[in-house]
Amino acid sequence: MTIDIHTHIWKEGYKSDLGYEAAAQYLAKVVNEWLGGVDGKEISAKFALENLFPKLMDPDGSKSIKRMDEAGIEISALFPVDAGLVWGDGKIGIEEYNEWMADIAKRYPGRFIFFYGIDPRRKNAIKMFEKSITNLNAKGLKLYPLSGFYLDDKVVYPFYSVCQEADLPVLTHLGPQTSIFKVKCGTPLRMKQVLIDFPKLKIIGAHLAEELWPDLLAIGKEFPNVYADISGHQLDTKEKSTHFAHVLRRFLNEMGPDRIMWGTDAPFFEPIVSAKEWLELIKSLPEVSKNTDKITEAEVEAVLDGNARKLLGIG
Ligand SMILES: [Zn+2]
Questions:
Q1: Distance CA 141, CA 79 (A)
Q2: Closest-CA residue to 27 (of 272, 196, 194, 216)
Q3: pLDDT single digits (tens) 264-310
Q4: CA 176–ligand 1 middle distance (angstroms)
Q5: E strand or H helix at 5, and its extent?
Q6: Residues 101, 9: contact at Cβ < 8 Å?
Q7: What's the confidence (pLDDT) of residue 181?
Q8: What phi, psi does 196 have (nearest 5°)?
Q9: Residue 176's pLDDT is what?
Q10: Topology classification of domain 2-11+53-312
Q11: How many angstroms is it from 7 CA to the middle of ligand 1?
Q12: How far is residue 5 from each of residues 69, 218, 297, measured CA to CA in Å?
């Protein structure tokens, strides 16, 4: 089976209008670039907001389960993105949003692993997070530094302490994503001091840090407690899977085969490259790379299942 280490569930009202607009702008850009728009016509952010987003909303988690079943995904790690301090909060506050998501996870036993998602600069954030470990069965912490903090800011340190102590992983967004966000805060290099100060803390760098992957590779090589997920690489892999195979080969060689994990960042990419198609792209890598980078079946299997299983402590 397969474990998806990076997913979200969208619900009306959890982002502010500005947050939705920013996400819609990004989705419209991707749809225009990769699908040539909708029905042959370029789409606007407004179109994405009004016509594509409603299809991605999943208030009871059933669309997520359907996606997982269709693709053959057993378990998805699930977490909110807290960008409220940069875009403004939506009608649903971050605490309520986390609770709602934890409840979805509870509703489908064995299908989701919930991580608490919070901006560490929020009032009482550490208390909310600590409480979530017992009350909401949170199995990790999701950070979103693009909302305006650095990973080595002291405000994040209490969270690292809690996670190291409880042996819970931290998954952080890495990479510039889009220029509308605070680009510089997503740099992997700001993990270094954290890794020095918390030698047993497990940190998962999301999206292989996007275009900043060489920096993540440099950090991952040096610190054995750095992990990475490959979510968000659907489009570049679809365009040129030999190139992605080459990048993946570098990570597998230099960080070892057991710290890279597959993920979708669902539901964002669903309209463009479905989870099922993304999975097939990864499964095709041994064939695609057989004369060049030689990704093996066993490595693919570890990336799709075994590595996440070990990290999350799932039997
Ligand atoms: Zn994400």
A1: 8
A2: 272
A3: 999 999 989 999 999 999 999 999 999 999 999 999 999 999 999 99
A4: 13
A5: strand 2-7
A6: yes
A7: 58
A8: -70, -45
A9: 84
A10: TIM Barrel (3.20.20)
A11: 6
A12: 16, 22, 19
Place of tokens 């999206």: 207
* Residues 6+ away with beta carbon under 8 Å from 270: 56, 67
pLDDT digits (tens, 9 = 90+) for 82-122: 989 988 898 999 999 999 999 999 999 999 999 999 999 99
Name the DSSP class of 172: E
**CA 19–ligand 1 middle distance (angstroms):** 14
Through-space distance between the first and last CA atoms of the chain, rounded to whole angstroms? 12
CA of 167 to the centre of ligand 1 (A): 22
Please, what is the Cα angle at 126 between 116 and 155, to 5 degrees?
110
Q: Whole-prediction pTM value?
A: 0.95
Ligand 1 centre from 297 Cα, in Å? 27
- Ligand 1 center to 173 CA (angstroms): 7
CA atoms within 13 A on the CB side of 289: 25
CA of 266 from ligand 1 middle (Å) equals 7
Of residues 301, 299, 312, 215, the one with CA closest to residue 252 = 299
User: How far away, in angstroms, is 70 Cα from ligand 1 center?
Assistant: 21
Domain positions in the chain: 2-11+53-312
**Phi first, then psi: what are they for 39, rounded to 5°?**
50, 40
User: CA separation (Å) from 55 to 12, 59, 294?
Assistant: 11, 11, 38
